[in-house]
Amino acid sequence: MLVGRLFLRHFGTMAPIAKTFDYLVIGGGSGGLASARRAAEFGAKCAVIERGPLGGTCVNVGCVPKKVMWNTAVHAEYLTDHKDYGFDVNGTTTFTWKTIKDKRDAYVKNLNKIYQANLDKGHIQTILGDAKFVGERCVEVDGNKYTAQHILIATGGRPVFPNTPGVEFGISSDGFFELEDLPKKSVVVGAGYIAVELAGILKTLGSDVSLLIRRDKVLRSFDSMISTELTEELQHIGINLMKQTQVSKVEKGADGRLNIFTNHGEISDVDTLLWAIGRVPNIENGLDTVGVELDSHGNVKVDEYQNTSSPGIYALGDVCGRALLTPVAIAAGRKLAHRLFNNEPNSKLDYNNIPTVVFSHPPIGTVGLTEEEAVAKYGKDQIKTYGARFTPMYHAVTERKTKTSMKLVCLLPEEKVVGLHMMGIGCDEMLQGFSVAVKMGATKSDFDSTVAIHPTSSEELVTMR
Questions:
Q1: Percentage of residues in the chain with pLDDT exceeding 90?
Q2: Does 454 participate in catalysis according to the annotation?
Q3: 276 and 198 in contact (C-beta within 8 Å)?
């Protein structure tokens, strides 16, 4: 009897046995979910570890709710044009932020449920909490250990804040989706695509917007035509673009409004300050415990097959700091699942010629090399460009005007199209098809031999001379 009691006492203090899977995915964002679901289709026993709502940044505080708000802003633009198309709006149109916020949030919550249903349907276990590596191919979540032959790091990233006094009085892009009403006066700090998208949405919906950038142009990593044209267009729609500007401190008044101090003076009575100065990877998972190497920016280092420096551990998506786009993470995740679980040893994502859209006003579409990148890679004498700038037909009868600009970057002598860049109404939707052509190696001659669709803006891409 004494032996039995001793045995039970000893057994009761033993650590719980780790649960084992074939594939353990840390991060329930787009890339992680896509990889887990594809692996499960191939018969792998999978689990997804996530601390927040399923869908990651894109679904919850990124592309999906952003596109809803962009669509809302487009309606505001069309309302301006209604009278020119013969519709009498009598000046009675009002906008209620809460209406679209409630509908947007409900849509996102429904997507969360759909993602969970898809995991359940695929017999993929959902583990809620923060994962931390505690040993070789072993992670711990809330005191429970899980092991797998293959572990994927797909933890994404988060907005970064500057070291500025009063920084806490501002919000990030995440906070934008928590706003309960349209701010009367807004300041956005940043020159990247998140900054220009949110500044454009706020301005178009009626906020008084100032956009503060460190240099002279926005989107400086894009083709120079895009950078120049959008910088001009932001000012054209009424955004107060403050160039060569940096914030020194932020103060909050008794009325809750902000005073923002810059090297060019003070901006007072600001309702919302939005920091959009970049993102950093989520790497607080004990990666050093298992020898996962990071680059100088804290991104997880991977090879072309998404392998990290630690065998059996992989990474993809924003945590790797390359091509921070939802479809890229999804494609990479599926390719990895094919390699690991469907006997396709050469399965990997080709990171060349990835199409990108910026939902600015008007939208931008781009794929391939910028002119500057092409010149640096092949030499100036090997590159020829074609361009067009025009007012789209939609504006033929409207007082409000926007421009459309397009450019083809071609590699001589056969004039292979190595870059395509455009900004204007509809460019977001027309890019996908042209991206297929660029990916297939189409030449300027191939574009020229394609009969144009008239009257459209896209016909300009097959009629340039």
A1: 95
A2: yes
A3: yes
